[in-house]
Amino acid sequence: MTAKFPAPVKRRFEFKLDLHSGVPVYRQLIDQVRSGTASGSLTAGDQLPTVRQLAVDLAINPNTVLRAYRELELGGLIETHQGTGTFVANKKRRIRGPRGSSRIHGRRVARSSARVIATSHAKEIDVMAKIELPPINGVAVSLFVICIVAGVIVTGVVHYPAPAIIGVFVGLYFLFAIKVVQQWEKVTLLRLGRYVGLRGPGLFHIVPIVETLSSYVDQRVRVANVSAESTLTRDTVPVNVDAIVFWMVWNAEKSILEVENFIEAINMSAQTALRESIGRHELAQMITEREVLGRELQRILDEKTNPWGITVQSVEIRDVRIPQGLEDAMSRQAQAERERQARIILGQAEKEIADSFVQAAASYAENPVALHLRAMNMLYEAIKERGSMVIVPSSAVETMGLGGTLATASLGGAKP
């Protein structure tokens, strides 16, 4: 005989929010569930309100509730049964961690977090690659090795470790004190955080810990690639524009002290100026007047970057790309325009020919002999080729007097 016990009644937990506490709403929901499970007011199997129901009861965004429930699922405090509801997880589930959708969501969150971290690391690496930190040079390394070797030799002679220790410390001092700056570089020297002056190019000496160096500044001409995608022109045409900016640092002191990251500032300023300039010009101007657009961008950027000790020498527009559909329409328009011009030229030629015929007709009307000569010339041109035959109406023969002429020619050529 099997005893049937009544199913346990699953209690509902009530949430209370304090909107004036300054604590985020989702964090208040998480803390209340955790405190409820810790105090015993929430036990395994107790049902929580659904996302929609809780959002309606508390008059908050459903995404906030969903975020809180997801974090609680990742922590193993609650579990969601599809079609049933959300319940407090038992202790075994909490120890082993969330399953099912919670585990999948945890993997997704981990992957997205990894992507964000990787992206931030990539940006930091990119910035560090562009702004080089002071490296340890070969001269300092050589002095470090010499000091250690000398200390070891002296220690071997006197059989006392003090020279070796002193050699190590002196070598470390030279390793971090001797600096070398290339011909095209400058670096600022800070003594206890206060600006002292510029150093370089060449070899110089600093006091470690007391004096520090900023990032090395390359004063050669640099090139920055700038692009603006799907930017509307003045006549509302979306275009993709690629440009290159030639710039250089003419005052290393200002470029380090006045702006945090002048390379990023140049790139962002150039991209913003390019978008603004595109919005002020029409598509035809951008295609045919690239030099004007480049000079305008150079002027705008130079005015903005000059207080930073940076000058923009020139800006060149490399490419202006338009949507394929618009490009096809413009091609058809150009083809239709050329056809129209061809027809106009052909009509003007026919008109000029007709005017010439009118003038010739007027001349022939006043001088019939000239008309006869022209007709005879045309007839001669037609029959001069061997084997050709021309049928001439009798009226034309009588009008030109060809009958008598031909008869005379035939009589003259007859034998007696």
Q: Can you characterise this structure?
A:
The protein is of the alpha+beta class and 416 residues long. The chain is 56% helix and 17% strand. The chain contains 15 helices and 12 strands. Strands 5, 6, 8 and 9 form a 4-stranded antiparallel sheet that branches. Strands 1-3-2 form a 3-stranded antiparallel sheet. It has a 3-stranded antiparallel sheet with strand order 10-11-12. Strand 10 and strand 11 form a beta hairpin. Helix 1 packs across helix 3, helix 2 packs across helix 3 and helix 12 packs across helix 13.
Q: Biggest β-sheet: count, sense, barrel?
A: 4 strands, antiparallel
Overall helicity? 55-70%
Shape: flat
Strand and helix order = HEHHEEHHHHEEEEEEEEHHHHEHHHH
The named CATH superfamily of the largest domain: Band 7 domain
The span between the termini is: 158 Å
**What amount of the residues lies in strands?**
15-25%
Low-pLDDT windows of residues: 1-10, 92-133
**Radius of gyration based on Cα positions:** 47 Å
CATH third-level topology of the largest domain: Tetrahydropterin Synthase, Chain A
CATH class category label of the largest domain: Alpha Beta
Query: Based on helices, strands and strand pairing, what is the structural class?
Result: alpha+beta
- The tally of helices reads 15
The CATH architecture classification of the largest domain is: 2-Layer Sandwich
